UniProtKB/TrEMBL annotation:
CDD domains: HAD_L2-DEX. The keyword Protein biosynthesis does not apply. It comes from Thioclava nitratireducens. Keywords: Hydrolase. Catalyzes the hydrolytic dehalogenation of small (S)-2-haloalkanoic acids to yield the corresponding (R)-2-hydroxyalkanoic acids. This is (S)-2-haloacid dehalogenase. SUPFAM superfamilies: HAD-like (SSF56784).
Amino acid sequence: MIKALIFDVFGTCVDWRNSVAREVETAFPGIDSLAFADAWRGEYDPAMRRIRDGGRGYVALDDLHRENLHRVAKRFAVSAPDSLSHVWERLNPWPDVVSGLHALRRHAIIAPCSNGSIALMTRLARHAGLPWDCILGADIARDYKPKPEVYLASCAALRLPPEEVMMVAAHNDDLSAARALGLKTAFVPRPTEYGPAQDKDLVPSEEWDAIAPDFETLAKELFA
């Protein structure tokens, strides 16, 4: 029985690419705002990898986003205010997400298991209308996915064994890490997360416990 669903957020629940690009275009008219968004996101994993590998102590994603913003702004020959890093708190949800989360929440606890901090996830939830029961993920584990501690800390915080928790993500590697720890898994593809030329995570790489085109369908498949 699934008693809780925990969710990847960036890409799975919200459209980071177009949301970031819109604010970048306002801040820097005339530059390629989608390229800037892609470059900013491109710094995401390398920044976290240094922490996962032990080369740096835990630093909240809010601070990594700000550091990465200035690194990318220099590359694009613009000067970015620190305040622009808060765009990650103002990302818009995919069309099915809010209604789908409400449908799922009628049957189970729902919470983010994101690399975003508690502060970031809370403000993003308020902006996007995401009806979480609580905020889980990197901040409580003091580490970043796909490290096992992040998934296990989320389960432990809910006082549930991994087999009663389902990880929902649009990224196969996220689900693979969760499955290895005993969590149930659900794949919901977001084929335009990285734009029209996206070439990864278009299809499931394994036979996940659930595969659905959107959150509303996932609710029906799990709890019909």
